[in-house]
Amino acid sequence: MITGNWDVTIKYTDRVASERWSIQQKGNALTAKAAGERGELPVSGSIEGAFVRVTAKDGDKDYKIRATVDGDAMDGSITLGVGQQYLWHAKRAK
Length: 94
What we know:
mainly beta
């Protein structure tokens, strides 16, 4: 289960952004709130085994996150629109 609070780091080309995700898992379904510099965004998606696939929408911008869970850490990427892809990492908050 990945329900709980996670500290997320996104490594953009010119900066690093930090977010706090509050994730709820029910079966394979995931919902979350991502709180960061843009305010709070709703996130939804799924988990299958160790693979997380979620999306978020901010106005006309679509974000797709693909990550692999390994205990209290997740590593993957975030894709903005078409083709802009950046490193995405999450660590379970203490």
